[in-house]
């Protein structure tokens, strides 16, 4: 097999995988412009009549302004605390070499293997006892579940940053805290973007944890409100598809804006120098 043939083969495989990956988005998008009847008659094809009212009705039923704000504030706050505390924890664990730091890092790494379903009921019960079943409590829970992977990524990225940068900053008069925030943390930008995008996708689309924690009207997130389109006896697919399209658009826009930094973050540390 020549080099050109190999490249053409890989391109064909990539194209097929891309079409398979995009197919669910195609189904959601085209069905968001159909009536309920058209969806059942022709699920795969283009709409016989493009219905824009689905989006207007879905936005009204979702109470889109309030729900969007709830999802936005929870996602931004959760990602901010995850990036802040995880980067500081990883810096301490990577720079301070001791048995304790090694054990702590292994504990964080092992925590990635614990399924959420095994701890969700005791966790919700404990937060309920201290009256934290609200948006603030939800942010604390996301910090706990998001920190292990974030610390793991930051810890790996910090190995590629020479300690001489810390020492030079301290010699110039910085404290350890200032050296981290002014010198080291800006160098971790690709990793921070990677951690942010992974957690944004997870938290923005999460249904299970908010459904257990948020139990007051007006505090629901977008995934919780979309679930109301799927009743016990009726399923409003046309409104659900329109709602899902509106929900995923912000994440897709953020991904395209940050894709260069994401690729840098994923490949950082892959090649040793």
From TrEMBL:
GO terms for cellular component: plasma membrane. It is a multi-pass membrane protein. Keywords: Cell membrane, Membrane, Transmembrane, Transmembrane helix, Transport. The keyword Thylakoid does not apply. Pfam families: BPD_transp_1. It is found in: Cell membrane. GO terms for biological process: transmembrane transport. The keyword Metal-binding does not apply. SUPFAM superfamilies: MetI-like. This is ABC transporter permease subunit. It comes from Biomaibacter acetigenes.
